[in-house]
Amino acid sequence: MKVVFRIIGSEEDLKDVEGKEENVHFCFRPSEKNIFELVNKAPKLKRIQLPSSYQKTISNTTKTLLNMKNIKLLTGDIWGHRTDIDRFAEIEV
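RE: above sequence
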């Protein structure tokens, strides 16, 4: 199934997230604060995707919060996508 993800390339991009986002891909290593900010800004959030190397650094506290909010934490990469051209990408989940 293909799903449209909002691409977050930096903390600056995180400031532009709207409340209607359901799927987000982080291209940078998000801190706990970044993830909590995203969860608070986007109440409809269903999925967060991270590259595998970043996935390993997510704390158990963050994983528990996402689990409590029914937000799936996915592993995956987006190669060659330019956020200056399009902030969204269609990804196979």
